[in-house]
Design a protein that fits this description.
Shape: elongated
Structural class: alpha+beta
Number of helices: 11
Number of strands: 6
Distance between the termini: 24 Å
Largest sheet: 4 strands, antiparallel
CATH architecture of one domain: Roll
Low-confidence stretches: 1-7, 18-33
CATH class of one domain: Alpha Beta
Radius of gyration: 31 Å
Mean pLDDT: 89
Helix content: 40-55%
């Protein structure tokens, strides 16, 4: 369904971007004001005797990217109508040439649409003020305070370079000055300062080293996939507990994912399912000749 929707939106975009389309739209009289008796079944055009309805236009308009949703009504109306007209004309041109593959593809798209509709409803119903608050409380109400760190580092390519930097610092050199001179990453210009970060935000060897340091400490060389670090811990503080609004999006995604997972499990558990195909040769899945006819 995603590819189908993308193609549909692209086709409408092409209609709207056709040279002269904007001028044609401006020259044409604006569509009549929507009458009070218009319904989804109101016919807006016919192609080879087949009706195109206002309902079809509404569905297609809903699938368009945001930039097309904001077009003037006249341009959007004409673009959507023209796309449906073109689409019907193209469909009519191959309707008599439908193959088994085509029929199967259409049935799969139908199943995909209905499955998406079912899961969208499940995901939507999973998120309420109550469920969000419960998820927030479960995660944060009794959570232990965490620590945030403010650190600087000097990054070099080799262990020998890192040892030389450490010896220079032990001899009294200023950390920021050495960082500006020898560090190889973007923080060098700021004296190696990395700012504040919480648990898990740095790669594991770096995080592990920082977590074991006292404020003011300068580490021994620490290797990560980025090279060799000499780290200075500047400050620590207790991380503020996030508010519900801070984590609303994350909790919403988690609630929806869990609801979908549970619903899929329940549906497959309750469905009458047999799998006679499990005895087939798996290589058959690559035999396109079975449908290419």
């Amino acid at each position: 369904m995603l590819m189908k929707n993308m193609l549909t939106a692209t086709a409408v975009a092409l209609v709207l971007a056709t040279p002269g389309f904007a001028q044609d739209t401006a020259a044409d009289p604006a569509p009549a004001a929507a009458s009070t008796d218009a319904t989804a079944d109101t016919v807006v055009a016919t192609v080879n005797g087949k009706d195109i309805t206002l309902g079809q236009m509404l569905v297609l308009r809903q699938r368009l990217p945001a930039q097309y949703q904001s077009l003037p009504d006249e341009a959007l109306f004409k673009g959507v109508m023209e796309q449906l007209i073109q689409q019907q004309a193209l469909a009519d041109s191959v309707e008599g040439d439908m193959t088994a593959k085509d029929e199967i593809a259409m049935e799969i798209e139908r199943q995909s649409y209905l499955a998406s509709k079912a899961l969208e409803a499940v995901a939507a119903s999973a998120v309420t003020d109550e469920s969000l608050q419960a998820a927030y409380d479960a995660r944060y109400a009794n959570a232990e305070p965490t620590t945030e760190y403010n650190a600087s580092h000097i990054l070099v390519a080799t262990e020998d370079e890192a040892k030389a930097v450490k010896a220079e610092l032990d001899g009294g050199a200023d950390f920021a000055d050495v960082a500006k001179e020898k560090s190889t990453d973007g923080a060098a210009q700021n004296g190696g300062e990395l700012g504040w970060f919480g648990e898990g935000m740095m790669v594991e060897p770096f995080q592990q080293a920082v977590s074991s340091m006292e404020v003011g400490d300068i580490s021994e060389p620490v290797q990560t996939q980025f090279g060799w670090h000499i780290i200075k811990l500047n400050e620590t503080r207790e991380a503020a507990k996030p508010t519900l609004d801070d984590v609303r999006d994350d909790l919403t995604s988690e609630l929806q994912e869990q609801a979908v997972t549970d619903h899929l499990a329940a549906m497959t558990e309750s469905a009458d399912i047999t799998r006679p195909g499990e005895g087939l040769d798996p290589a058959l899945l690559r035999d396109d000749s079975l449908i290419d006819n």
